[in-house]
Design brief:
Strand content of chain B: under 5%
Largest sheet of chain B: none
Number of strands of chain A: 22
Radius of gyration of chain B: 25 Å
Strand content of chain A: 15-25%
Distance between the termini of chain B: 8 Å
Strand order of the largest sheet of chain A: 14-21-13-20-18-19
Helix content of chain A: 25-40%
Shape of chain A: globular
Helix content of chain B: over 70%
Oligomer: heterodimer
């Protein structure tokens, strides 16, 4: 036997041995729909980064909040209708025209170690966040707080220097236990690696760079937690995460449009997971102009460029149709977006007319110019975001049609921030804003923020009418009136067109079919997951 | 003589390490961006107070030179400081990530040696054999294969389509209380793909080295003398040619010591392997200066130590080398 055929034989034997230990392939699709609510099973999530600090008000990364969201509770939270509802708070009341909030806390809430949760824990958490020695990125939450009183263990009275409508949402920050953290250096305390909260899941184990495991809190105040374990696996590579999703190694995965349309498909995938497409309510992409620079200080030029953009081409080319044109500073699906404002249509005649009006005339070389200066600008975005990288190239082509030269360039993120955005050293950028359910956008659009905040109002936008609306919105506690104010704000900003609003992408995810008890709302399935979701017996066996 | 030489080399190491650390420190801080910026970018809720507290926590409120000397002062006390990311001691983080990388890389290095040396020797002694040529071609192909692509192909093929091996990770959490045998099989299954990828093609360089040095050794005068005095071909090969041909391999081995623990960023990231390569990557992207400094310092120490050990070993094996 020659060496070659010996190698062949050996590999054949290896193959046979391996096939013998081949994993059973998963199939959740055959599970009967009406299986009983049972306890047990495990939910496995993938996380790109590793968690950092697990004191709930220290971490600012999503890997940490994935864990703290399950281990801790705030006083309030956003419910399925995106309005605030009580979490640790039973109820709350506004007094003194909104300058005071009185929280009544839920009784009989226990920390995971059995100690009772009281108003003293709330007071401790706020004091700790505001402590100059504590490196919390959330100090602005309570900047306006003038005093905090706890007259009894179940009452918290928060007094503010002035009425501030967005303040309530900040009470959603996870409350930490006073009895375990008082007098300690919160920044470095071992609590960060082994947190104790009030939440539906109890911290169990953290294997460095591998996973964190949580166990159901058998004593949870909101009700029975059905799924016995949650494991968060740290998988840095997005492609690996997606493959793990495909084989049932993790139970959720964010999807890119091409994955959603072409890869998360087929009979094998349909046996494991469902694909979910939600219309994005909080995120939009834009091309922003540097309003402090010529020619973008001229509203006609901004509108002309906006009219020259074929938004559908971007939505097809970049998002494969899984996005919608954006109309203004809220996603068109947000309740705060004025439905009367339509997306700017592609209109090259209008675009040319506006540019002519503004004095930018078409030259012999096909490029518009004014006073001997060509209409040429740099269009930049950050590296590592393929959607934005494609967008600037498409825009470049589209502007060419009206005789405008955009020089597209992709720049590494930190250099993009320090050398361009923070220094206001750019002509136009393509970026995205991700907003919260709260409508307040003061930092992004108020003229006072041009000086204050290097990265928020970085386009130097200022409009006295918009300033007034933003100030009014912060004082309005009534939802209906809020909506009216912010729709007006949406319309006014769209009229100024300080940026060409481009797209609001859909949120695409894959979710394992093994979960039952899902609550379907327009904004997703994840609401109350810990107390509603369960895994039928037939799907509980480990892989 | 040898001792004096070793001592002198060790003394020379000190200024070298100091220089490396200054350079690394400067490079880290010269790069655009900083940890506070990366943590707070485009977050409308960050107030100046938060930024001040974060800067103080990271020691960034001091001048750069002072920051360097603080680092140096801690280092003298064998303290690499705390990671910015999670405030854990850098040394603990490195030690926690060490076993996974050491396991993967020592196995991979052994395989590379096991494949590369015989391959190189055979290529030199039987250059016309079909198998040799076949392996030479394979080596060439393997060497040109991009690691990340091979890794993804294997994950899709062996992991997803065939379902034979786990796609990523180190050990199955569910087996924590299983028998040692089951745990070993589990570890082996997780190890298979990353080990294959990190070995695949890595033998190419070594086998070329061995082949060249073997060819050179075979044309030396003492080989002809050995043959002329009637030694058996076997003895000529084992006692005279091979030991001489392998001398350069010692240098290569010495220089691969730092590689043993430096870990591969690509392989460890793709396979979610909990090793030092991932630690380095996360530290670099997150501006975790203390971890970066700790890792690069350790790398420098090992590189210097590796080359010293290689020199000393070679000297003690090769009587031609004299210490000055």
């Amino acid at each position: 036997m020659s060496l070659f055929s010996r190698i062949l034989l050996a590999s054949l034997i290896c193959t046979l041995v391996l096939s013998a230990c081949r994993r059973r392939s998963l199939d959740y699709s055959a599970m009967p729909d009406a299986e009983q609510v049972v306890d047990g099973g495990i939910q496995v999530q993938g996380s790109g980064g590793e968690a950092g600090k697990l004191v709930p008000y220290l971490g600012s990364d999503s890997a940490s909040s994935d864990i703290t969201d399950l281990v801790f509770n705030g006083l309030v939270r956003f419910g399925p209708d995106l309005q605030l509802e009580g979490d640790l708070a039973q109820s709350w009341q506004f007094k003194d025209a909104g300058k005071t909030i009185i929280f009544k806390l839920k009784p009989n809430v226990k920390w995971h170690d059995g100690k009772p949760f009281t108003s003293a824990d709330v007071a401790f958490t706020v004091r700790s966040i505001m402590d100059p020695k504590v490196a919390s990125p959330r100090k602005s939450y309570f900047d306006l707080l003038s005093s905090l009183e706890t007259p009894d263990p179940l009452t918290v009275i928060a007094r503010y220097k002035k009425a501030f409508a967005p303040a309530l949402q900040y009470w959603g920050i996870g409350i930490a236990p006073k009895h375990l953290l008082e007098g300690k250096d919160v920044n470095t305390d071992p609590f960060n690696r082994a947190p104790v909260g009030t939440g539906p899941y109890v911290f169990k184990v953290w294997k460095d760079k591998q996973y964190i495991e949580l166990e159901a809190n058998s004593n949870y105040f909101e009700g029975k937690v059905h799924i016995a374990k949650v494991r968060i696996r740290f998988i840095p590579e997005a492609a690996t995460q997606f493959l793990e999703m495909k084989t049932g190694g993790i139970d959720f995965s964010r999807l890119q449009p091409d994955q959603y349309l072409h890869q998360a498909t087929g009979p094998a995938f349909d046996k494991i997971a469902r694909r979910i497409r939600l219309q994005g309510m909080f995120r939009y992409g834009y091309m922003a102009f540097n309003l402090a620079r010529k020619p973008f200080d001229d509203k006609r030029v901004r509108w002309a460029l906006s009219y020259a953009i074929d938004r559908d081409e971007i939505i097809q080319g970049v998002w494969e149709g899984l996005a919608r044109p954006c109309t203004g500073p809220y996603s068109p699906l947000s309740p705060f977006a004025d439905p009367a404002v339509k997306a700017v249509p592609l209109d090259l005649t209008m675009s040319a007319k506006l540019l002519d009006e503004a004095g930018w005339h078409l030259g012999k070389d096909g490029i518009r110019s004014k006073d001997g200066k060509q209409l040429k600008f740099s269009l930049i975005t950050n590296q590592g975001n393929p959607a934005r990288e494609k967008t600037i190239l498409i825009l470049q082509q589209q502007f060419k049609k009206i005789g405008v030269v955009a020089e597209a360039q992709t720049i590494e993120w930190s250099s993009f921030l320090s050398n361009y955005v923070n220094k206001r050293n750019f002509d136009a950028v393509v970026m995205e804003w991700r907003l919260t359910p709260d409508p307040d956008q003061f930092e992004i659009w108020h003229s006072s923020e041009i000086k204050n905040n290097p990265q928020m109002n970085f386009i130097s936008y200022g409009n006295p009418k918009v300033d007034t609306l933003l100030e009014k919105g912060r004082l309005e506690f009534d939802r209906k009136k809020q909506i009216a104010i912010y729709r007006e704000f949406h319309k006014r900003v769209a009229e100024d067109q300080p940026m060409a609003f481009l797209y609001a992408p859909d949120e695409l995810t894959a979710l394992s079919l093994k979960f039952r008890g899902l609550l379907e709302t327009p904004t997703g399935y994840t609401w109350y997951a810990p107390i509603r979701w369960y895994i039928p017996k037939s799907a509980q066996q480990a892989l | 003589m040898l001792l004096r030489y070793a001592l002198r080399r060790l003394l020379l190491t000190l200024p070298l390490l100091l220089g490396i650390s200054v350079l690394t420190f400067a490079l880290l801080h010269l790069a655009p961006g900083n940890p506070v910026q990366s943590e707070t970018a485009f977050n409308s809720k960050i107030s100046p107070d938060s930024i001040r507290a974060l800067r103080a926590l990271y020691g960034m409120d001091e001048p750069l030179v002072a920051q360097y000397f603080q680092w140096l002062n801690r280092l003298v006390h064998f303290d690499f400081g705390l990671s910015f990311r999670d405030q854990q001691p850098v040394l603990d983080k490195i030690l926690a990530a060490l076993p996974a990388t050491l396991l993967l890389n020592s196995l991979s290095l052994s395989l590379v040696l096991l494949i590369g040396i015989p391959l190189g020797v055979r290529a030199a002694t039987r250059p016309t054999e079909r198998l040799t040529r076949w392996f030479a071609a394979l080596t060439f192909v393997a060497y040109s294969f991009p690691e990340f692509w091979l890794a993804l192909l294997l994950q899709i093929g062996v992991g997803v389509k065939l379902g034979w091996l786990p796609l990523s990770g180190y050990r199955s959490p569910d087996l924590a209380s299983a028998t040692w045998w089951a745990q070993a099989v589990d570890l082996g299954a997780h190890l298979a793909l990353p080990l294959f990828v990190s070995t695949f093609g890595a033998w190419a360089v070594l086998s070329r080295y061995v082949r060249n040095s073997m060819l050179e050794a075979l044309h030396q005068d003492f080989i002809r003398t050995a043959r002329a005095k009637g030694l058996s071909p076997r003895r000529v090969f084992w006692a005279h040619a091979l030991p001489n041909a392998l001398l350069p391999v010692i240098t290569i081995l010495g220089l691969s010591i730092p590689g043993l623990i430096s870990g591969s960023v690509i392989i460890e990231s793709i396979f979610a392997w909990p090793g030092l390569g991932r630690l380095a990557w996360e530290a670099a992207t997150g501006y975790d200066y203390p971890v970066m400094m700790g890792l690069s310092f350790m790398g420098a120490v090992l590189t210097i130590a590796g080359s010293l050990v290689a020199d000393l070993t070679q000297a003690s094996l090769d009587p031609r080398i004299k210490f000055e």
